[in-house]
Amino acid sequence: MRLAALVAVTLAAACHRTPKPVSVAPLPSSAYAHYLAGKYALYSEDPAQAVVELTAAAKAAPEQPMITVELARALAKAKRLPEARDVLGPARKRWPDHAGVWLASADVLAEIPAQRRDAAAAYRRAIELEPTDERGYLGLARVHLANKDVNGAERTLRRLVTKLPESVDGHYRLAQRLAANGKREDAVVELRAVLERDPDHLDARIDLARTLRRMGKLDEAVSQTRSAFDRAGQPMDLAEELYWVLVEADDRMGAIDLLALLDDDRSDAEALATVAVYNRNLGRFAEARVVAQHIKPHDPDASIIAVAEVDAAEGKVETALAALLEIQETSPKFLHARGVAVGILLKQKRANLALELVAPLRAKYPTDLEIQFAGALTLAKLGQAAKARAAAKAFKGDATVVAFLRARISETLGDLSGALALLEPALRTSPDHVGALNLAGYLLAKQNTRLGDAERYLSHARDLQPGDPSILDSWGWLLVQQGRTREAVRALDRAARFAPLEPEIQLHLAAAWAADGAPKRAADILERAVAQDPSLCLGYDKDMKRGTVFAMLLVGACSKGPSEDQCKKLLSHIVDLEFKKAGAAASSDAMKAEIAKQKTAVTEAKSKEFLDQCVNKMSKVRVECALKANELDGDNGVGKCDEAK
Questions:
Q1: DSSP string of 127-159, one letter each residue
Q2: d(Cα 374, Cα 349) in Å, to the nearest integer?
Q3: Residue 498: its pLDDT value, please?
Q4: Whole-angstrom Cα distance, residue 173 to residue 383?
Q5: Which residues pair with 631 in a beta bridge?
Q6: 99 close to 132: Cβ distance less than 8 angstroms
Q7: In terms of Cα–Cα distance, which of 255, 250, 251 is closest to 274?
Q8: What count of other Cβ atoms lies within 10 Å of the Cβ of residue 325?
Q9: Spacing of C-alpha 450 from chain mean position
Q10: Is 447 helix (H, G, I), strand (E, B) or coil?
């Protein structure tokens, strides 16, 4: 019995022997000098010189396995993979029990797709020889992923963290795999394990925040994002992420406090411009104007643009345009300023003036995508479909961006199917383009078709850019189409509060309230939206089913009669515009008095008849539109408001 036991022990020892230690003699001085020079060249990003030095070191000390390993790594870094492989083949035979040789071999073989199986075997041998070196496990997991074996990668990483619980990279890579496989709860456990061992691991903290947000745990998501923001030194990219997470969490005050924090001396012009935009979008015009002034010492023209955008948002359109057009062609901001001016004109329904401005720029700057897009969009707004399509076809740049911009032109022309035909192939190659995801999802929801695909696109867009009101708006409209009206109201209400200047969001919110059985609330919101943008009445109801509660409410909002006071103001305004058109100008106090007397006489003569017609037969929207007009005719004239009847 004792003999049998001894035999068993001997056999076990033979099958599971401890690798024989590799003897490493001291380096001779001639080899040591070349070895140090080679390592220095590698650190200096000069792999070619590293190869020269390490080759010399290997010749001087051929019995040293680690010199061979470093030479192979230098060859690999120099993109000489076949030579690296050829160096390591004999090394594995000479030092079969050296874990470093097997690990280096695996790293080189993994870079050659046809030899990934050999790479996996080499990593396994390295793990067998040195089971406490995390690099073997991490490399094997990478090979599994390269071979699309996600389960194999997960198993390998679990082995790693079981064997080496202190492996930060092991826990982090496992968390990434778990999250990709939809195992969010398990991913959170691993991410917390990373942060327990390395609290300053920013990637893990950001991933934890994003995973918690996806799980609906917004309070902790905000906390983790804020911690990452502070630990990283408050960089602007994390500031923007924190802002959108705060919006997603419906924390308006938190978002405002963050914007106040970012408006300081450490922020550059680009960061301050972003802060100004966020303040303006929140309807905080005074604050946006202050931030815009803070840009001036960094970039005076960027400051002018930021101030002009605030002016336009406050209705001071002519002031904004004048400032933008003062920026000289020598300025780096010239084309951007012209693009902003075109956008303002288009928003004001002054497409003819926009075309006058952008046409010569398109000819002079054929490769500037912003200007080319502005020109194509202007043509589309004017209904010049063939010219707009031709202009869009000439766009040059990143393929996904170009497809997205061309889709926007197609959408403006009413060709929704054509827009989707451009977007969806682009999303197959660039699945994370937020703008394309949002537009594709919205267009499908707008047509009430393929709502499953719409939800997939918009869910991913929300995942990439949480809290963005434009995405929330699309999401809310999708929910309306799916009959999830109470959820739609919540999403659209949040979008409206964080983007109060967007009347179309208000329109969708009203539709959601109407669908949810609250017509009075819908009517109040519609009235505000139409007052903000009377053009909503110009055919927007074509997208709505006629006869629905919402369609009737929209008609009501657009046809509500004006007050007598509004009509009196309109009469006075039209008389002023008539005198202006006639060229009446006062050069002295006597002239001013005479013109005022004539205006009063004209107003009194027309008053009774005009007020009767205005109060009883004009729509409130038409009157409000005319009050904003600054001329009788033209793109911004009173006559244009006839379209809003």
A1: HHH-TT-HHHHHHHHHHHHHTT-HHHHHHHHHH
A2: 14
A3: 92
A4: 53
A5: 637
A6: no
A7: 255
A8: 12
A9: 24
A10: coil
Three-state DSSP class for 317? Answer: helix
Give me the DSSP letters along 452-471.
Answer: HHHHHHHHHHHHHSTT-HHH
Find the mean pLDDT for residues 103-123.
94
**Average pLDDT for residues 207-217, to the nearest whole number?**
94
pLDDT of res. 591: 56
Find residue 637's DSSP bridge partners. Answer: 631
- Output 571 or 393, whichever has higher pLDDT: 393
Q: Which two tokens stand for residue 363?
A: 């000819």
Distance separating alpha carbons of residues 56 and 594, to the nearest angstrom: 102
Helix, strand or coil, per DSSP, at residue 631: strand
What does pTM read for this prediction?
A: 0.75
pLDDT > 50? residue 541:
no
Q: For residue 212, how many C-alpha atoms fall within 13 Å in the half-sphere facing its CB?
A: 22
What's at 192, amino acid-wise?
Answer: R
CA distance 347 to 338: 14
Q: Is 117 exposed, middle or buried (CB count within 10 Å of its CB: 0-12, 13-18, 19+)?
A: exposed
Count of CB atoms situated within 10 Å of the CB of 135: 18
Question: What's the Rg (C-alpha) of the chain?
Answer: 34
Averaged pLDDT, 130-139: 96
Residue 565 has phi, psi (to 5 degrees) of -65, -40
CB-based contact 416:443 (threshold 8 Å): yes
Q: Indicate whether 622 pLDDT > 90.
A: no
Cα torsion for 612, 618, 619, 622, to the nearest 10°? -120
What phi, psi does 387 have (nearest 5°)? -65, -40
User: SS3 of 482, please?
Assistant: coil
Q: How far apart are CA 260 and CA 287, in angstroms?
A: 9
SS (H, E, C) 253-288: HHHHHHHHHHCCCCCCHHHHHHHHHHHHHCCCHHHH
Q: Which of 2-16, 201-215, 269-283, 494-508 has the lowest mean pLDDT?
A: 2-16
**Model pLDDT for residues 559-614, shown as the tens digit of each residue:** 666 777 778 788 778 777 776 766 554 455 555 566 566 667 766 776 777 777 77
- Mean pLDDT (whole number) for 244-257: 94
* Inter-CA distances, 235 with 232, 466, 585, Å: 7, 19, 55
C-alpha closest to that of 224 among 256, 250, 192: 192
